[in-house]
Amino acid sequence: MNTSNTSDLQQFKESVHPLNLLPLWERHVKLVPGSQSIPAHWSYDKVRPFLEESVRLITKKDADRRVLVMENPALRGSSFISQSLFAGQQIIMPGEVAPSHRHSPNALRFVVEGEGAYTSVDGVKMKMRPGDFIVTPNFMWHDHGNEGNQAVVWMDGLDTPFTSLFGAHFRENYPQDIYPVTHTCHQVDEHSANFLYPWQTSFDQLLAMPPTKIDPAHGMKLRYTNPQTGKDPFTTIAAFLQMLPKGFQGQTYRSTDHTVFNVAQGSCLLEVGHQTYHLATHDVMVIPAWESYRFSSSEMSILFSFSDRSAQQALGFWREEYLA
Ligand code: GTQ
Fold it and tell me: Model pTM greater than 0.85?
């Protein structure tokens, strides 16, 4: 029972205001799951011509990184795809180098198309092939280059919103374009095991999963784990590869992590609320926290995804729900 009268309360609120105090009982902040970001879809067919146009407009030297940032329409001005994640499409042409630098955010690459590019992380030079998932841990020197004869495109994923949140974003350019290479890896070895998750290995693992492992919402789903630690590749970001079998009708699902999907093979339908998205090969889709979604697939499709689940689980916040 509120015993004070309204004008007393109003007067109280006004008198504490100059002291930067606010009555908690009048708080209007939304204290329910879900975030400000909204579901959004990027069709690769629509994005691809603009990547090509950016090649004509700007050199890699001028751009440092030639990236089209996928910005959530509800977070205009942030350059973030969700409250917690950054995602971009990077294109690198034959002969180009994206000069070495390092920064506080962690970064991942998921290779979309083209052969002949490499990324070098902490002096470990690795070939990038379509479907490879590559880890750039925070504050390690990294440069990329294309030594082949075709355009190479990959998706970047970073946890920049975390460094922004904490006010802990540092960044440096290396004095030369290329950081000295100490190891050149043609496959996964002891130098690249922390950084490189080749497509073929992950794909074979998916195919080898027994039918009993099928998840009613996600089909066959693998979570990338660092072979040395047995943990997620990042403390913030978890990454996944999943297969929706032909004819899959998924259960509706939601979880508190924001997830960015990238269709590696095939196509599928994704129902989010009242909207149905057709996800074609190489399309990107972001699902915000606690948004319900449902997959169906008329052909076998393979989806790469990354999310802030690693951070949420470390902090004890993560929850999921399978809906009827
Ligand atoms: O390739 O190092 O999309 O530093 C954003 C920041 C890519 C990169 C991005 C980066 C990079």
Answer: yes
